[in-house]
Structure formats: C-alpha cells, structure tokens
Write a structure and sequence with these properties.
- By secondary structure, the chain is an alpha+beta fold.
- It has 2 domains: 72 residues, no CATH class; 136 residues, no CATH class.
- The chain has 6 helices and 15 strands.
- Strands 6, 7, 8, 9, 10, 11, 12, 13, 14 and 15 form a 10-stranded mixed beta sheet that branches. A 3-stranded antiparallel beta sheet has the order 1-2-3. Strands 4-5 form a two-stranded antiparallel sheet.
- A hairpin with a 2-residue loop joins β2 and β3.
- It starts with a strand and ends in an 18-residue tail after the last helix.
- About 10% of the residues have low confidence.
C-alpha cells in the first residue's frame, strides 16, 4: 500500500502529514525528521531508499524540470486563492499549546489548531475585492484559511486574524503578555474587549481562571472592570 504525504509551510519548520490508504499516520516537521535520522546514523539507508521514492509519479533521482519549477513556485508560499499574498509565519514565542479554563489552542509556524480544526494563516493582499469576498466558490475554498498580520490594539501587540472572506464584524487579536511572572496569550476582540486569557499549562489556566488583573482593565470584557 502506498504512503502519501502533504506539506505545510517551508524550510526546517515545514510540516509533513503522512497517509496510507485512507488512514492518517501522523505528522512531523522536516527538522524533527532530520534530528531523528541523525540519531540513528541512517545516511546509507536514506541514500538507498531515495532511489525508490517517487514524487508526483516520477523517480526522485531523475525529477523533471517541471517538478523543479513547481518546487521553485512553492517557495513563494503563495496559493492560487484570490487575494493570497503568501503564508504568514507566526513568531516563535507565540508557538505551542495554550490553555484557558475550558479550551486549548495550538499555534504552529503557519497555522492555528482549535477544537481539532486547523486553520492555515496567510497574508492577504490589499486589492482583494468585495466582489471576491462574496464569491461562494472562494468562500468554500477558504474555509480553513484565515488572513493574518501583526498589529497593535490598545497598547498590546499581537496577531490579527480574520476569516478570509470576512468583510464586517469583529476580528480577533492574539497578544502575548505576562501575568504572575508567566507568559499568557490574550484573546482580544476588536469590537468587544478581552475575551479570554490563555496559559502555557492547564494547571495555570484553572488556577487563575477567575483572577482579575488590574493591568488588563483598560481592555474591558470578561468582567474585568
């Protein structure tokens, strides 16, 4: 049975998702795979297996010019989605799993995962039109893609995220902060103040679930006033 893969991101942080038949096997970054193989001293085995690997139906030892062209195009990190200006890279200090009292969220190099639903983050070009936002085909294609950028809101710097075709309503900013000497991720609505505070562990999230922090009062929301 053939093993297939899909890719997300680029460079050493590129994530490889493996499937066999209709079953999901798992995922790892290129860096994690290289570190694992180095521990096993597997250079000779890799060289042997490389000759048997096929990419897009052609042997890896004689990949065509077309394959190379596709790889070069992939480096631009742009998809064929209208308005896509390239993949957004989440700063390293934001990445990892964050917990609130009732939920958790993971931020990877280029995506966010909440409730087992993964959303890939991309920059959106300024000329993405209102007509395109209302196009049903584009809406369907971008159900798991969001527009992202760095921004500031009420003195807090964070990642601004909105639905790809969203043209109205509240957007969300995820801002790094510190409370009780611990890193926290503030979930701030652009129209409704602070929505949640997430911590690096579920224990911290539960411990401070009902704590009111004086330095966050200016944001309003979640009964902080």
């Amino acid at each position: 049975m053939q093993t297939r893969y899909t890719l997300q991101g680029d460079g050493s942080s590129q994530k490889i998702f493996l499937y066999q038949g209709g079953h999901y096997l798992g995922a790892a970054t290129v860096e994690e795979i290289v570190q694992f193989l180095n521990k096993l001293n597997s250079d000779s085995e890799i060289s042997r297996l490389q000759k048997k690997v096929t990419i897009g139906g052609s042997s890896s030892s004689n990949a065509s010019a077309a394959d190379k062209s596709k790889a070069d195009d992939a480096k631009t990190n742009k998809s064929d989605i209208p308005g896509d200006a390239g993949i957004f890279t989440i700063p390293a200090n934001y990445r990892g799993v964050w917990y609130s009292d009732e939920s958790k969220m993971e931020l990877t190099a280029h995506s966010m995962v909440a409730d087992s639903d993964e959303t890939e983050l991309h920059h959106q070009s300024a000329n993405f039109s209102e007509k395109q936002r209302q196009n049903r085909d584009i809406q369907n294609k971008t159900m798991h893609i969001a527009a992202a950028n760095m921004t500031n809101i009420n003195g807090f710097s964070g990642i601004y995220i909105a639905g790809w075709c969203q043209n109205a309503g509240e957007k969300t900013v995820y801002a790094l902060h510190q409370e009780k000497g611990q890193p926290v991720l503030l979930i701030i609505g652009t129209g409704g103040g602070l929505h949640d505070i997430m911590w690096r562990s579920p224990q911290l999230a539960k411990k401070y679930a009902h704590t009111k922090f004086a330095d966050l009062r200016k944001l309003g929301g979640i009964e902080l006033n």
